[in-house]
Amino acid sequence: MSDLLPQELRILVAVAETGGFSAAAAALGLTQSAVSHSVRGSEAKLGTVLFERGRTGASPTRAGERAVAHARRILRLYEVMGAEVRGAGRGGGRDTVEGVLRIAAFRSAALHLLPPALERLAARHPGIRPEVRVVREIGAGAAGEVAEGRADLGIATLGSPEDAPPGLLSGVLAEEAYRLVHPAGHPDPKALPLMDWDENCGSYTRSWWRSQDWIPRATVKAEDDAMVLTMVGRGLGMAIMPELSLREATEAVDITDLGPRGPVRQVGYVTTPEGASTLAVRALIRELRSMKA
User: Fold this and answer.
1) Domain 95-174+267-292: which topology?
2) C-alpha–C-alpha distance, residues 281 and 33, integer Å
3) Overall pTM > 0.85
4) Cα(214)–Cα(191) distance, rounded to whole angstroms?
């Protein structure tokens, strides 16, 4: 089997991201026939169909999704190689870390964990240009963005090993407890309806939730944790929320400890083996770990 060339990888990614051969051709400045020929050649080299063709465009097969994820990660290594080699050439005997660092994080982590680490990173390595994207921690979440090659490092909730995409490296940055949050001064908060949002209650807390007979089924679903806090402050219900989310709490709510057996979650970084060897990712991990210490 012949190796796929960088341009063939770029075409696979473009077809997947634009949803069709014509759109990919326009994005890359190629003809549609050139894109079609390249994809057929890639399929022949890999020995499998990568895209389902239809009247409305093209969508990756399961094999195609895997190929596109690898293609993104390989192309990213080409970019990092260029940045690191240029930095080494200008470093005068030491590595100068520079270039774009792509980060995916769920909302409260992007608000509260990342900024101080990025501030320290900028002071030590002004040549690094962070690009932070907030993703919902549903399904694969931030870890999935890393596995798919869309991010170099993710800040994610770390559940059981079987929940994580295979082949990724991770490390715990914080362990945070869940608390009961309710309208300030309410005499019986457990009697209130439950406010919740889709990203809450991962696999690491489900057994605790199931064992609590006092928690009603969610009567109101909100878009995110900030909306839940606002609605609780308006007296519309109570919620069970992790500490990172509660950093935005106002005087409109009270926060009650759930005791030593209450649920906790781990928040950590996730990267790929090849990402963990790059200077920029290693530098950010050092800053994140120093905050933990």
Assistant:
1) D-Maltodextrin-Binding Protein; domain 2 (3.40.190)
2) 38
3) yes
4) 8
